């Protein structure tokens, strides 16, 4: 850059150097085979394991350090999708079918509203021969919000059993599109009543120590 006081001007000379395009790394067959073999693990764990195996001879054709978490996730989803996706056009129906196929899991009638509620019990609840309900003296409620791409709230009834936390029932809930008073509370109550009617006298504590008692 140069200035001319006489002409009251500035002259700028510049040169543009184009950016070098980053190399595109494609998954090799070796990496895809590894992900398939480890598909029971979450993708973040598979990615972490791969990063620890950069010098492994089975991956000599792949520069593992250039592979991204997203690439690992995409391959993992494509491999596992057929195991859990039962209806590609309807996520709600797909979830119902998947739950129905699992031993000991039961859908809770009355809380099967497409796009609103999906509730079910686990083997820890349905298998009373294996899990003695008399030992379940306190049952707690936990919750999470925005748990999946649809933004469902997730509620779980769980108990302490031999020093281990066991999930008894889950409720996926999204009442944002419902125009009614007490929409969330009504469905939570229906969930608790359904568990009570299944023969389970409940003394429920929330994680804030709020006590709810549902007598048989």
Please provide a written account of the structure.
With 216 residues, the protein is α+β, with helices and mostly antiparallel strands. It folds into 2 domains: 19-84; 91-214, no CATH class. Helix content is 30%, strand content 25%. It contains 6 helices and 9 strands, in the order ββααααββαβββαββ. It has helices at 29-37, 43-51, 69-84, 91-101, 123-126, 183-197; strands spanning 2-4, 9-11, 106-113, 117-121, 139-144, 153-161, 164-173, 202-206, 211-214. The strands form 2 sheets. A 7-stranded mixed beta sheet has the order 3-4-7-6-5-8-9, sandwiched between helices. α2 (43-51) crosses α3. The longest helix has 16 residues, at 69-84. The chain is extended.
Summarize the structure.
By secondary structure, the chain is an alpha+beta fold. It has six helices and nine strands, in the order E-E-H-H-H-H-E-E-H-E-E-E-H-E-E. It has two domains: 66 residues; 124 residues, no CATH class.
Shape: extended
Q: How large is the radius of gyration? A: 27 Å
What quaternary form is this?
A: single chain
Q: Count of helices? A: 6
The main β sheet shows up as: 7 strands, mixed
Q: Look at the helices and sheets and give the structural class.
A: alpha+beta
Layout: helices, strands, pairs:
Elements: E1 2-4, E2 9-11, H1 29-37, H2 43-51, H3 69-84, H4 91-101, E3 106-113, E4 117-121, H5 123-126, E5 139-144, E6 153-161, E7 164-173, H6 183-197, E8 202-206, E9 211-214
Parallel strand pairs: 5-8
Antiparallel strand pairs: 1-2, 3-4, 4-7, 5-6, 6-7, 8-9
Helix pairs in contact: 2-3
């Amino acid at each position: 850059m140069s200035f001319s006081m006489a002409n009251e001007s500035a002259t700028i000379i510049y040169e543009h150097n184009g950016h070098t395009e980053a190399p595109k790394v494609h998954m090799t067959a070796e990496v895809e085979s590894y992900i398939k073999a480890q598909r029971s693990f979450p993708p973040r764990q598979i990615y972490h394991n791969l990063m620890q195996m950069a010098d492994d001879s089975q991956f000599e054709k792949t520069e593992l350090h250039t592979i991204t978490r997203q690439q690992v996730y995409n391959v993992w989803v494509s491999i596992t999708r057929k195991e859990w996706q039962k209806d590609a056009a309807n996520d709600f129906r797909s979830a119902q079918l998947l739950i129905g196929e699992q031993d000991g899991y039961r859908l809770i009638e009355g809380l099967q509203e497409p796009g609103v509620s999906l509730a079910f019990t686990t083997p820890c609840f349905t298998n009373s021969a294996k899990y003695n309900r008399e030992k379940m003296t306190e049952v707690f409620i936990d919750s999470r919000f925005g748990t999946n791409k649809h933004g469902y709230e997730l509620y779980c009834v769980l108990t302490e059993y031999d020093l281990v936390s066991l999930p008894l029932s889950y409720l996926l809930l999204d009442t944002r599109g419902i125009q009614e008073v007490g929409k969330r509370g009504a469905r939570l109550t229906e969930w608790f009543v359904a568990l009570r009617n299944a023969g389970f006298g409940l003394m429920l504590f929330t994680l804030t120590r709020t006590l709810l008692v549902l007598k048989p």
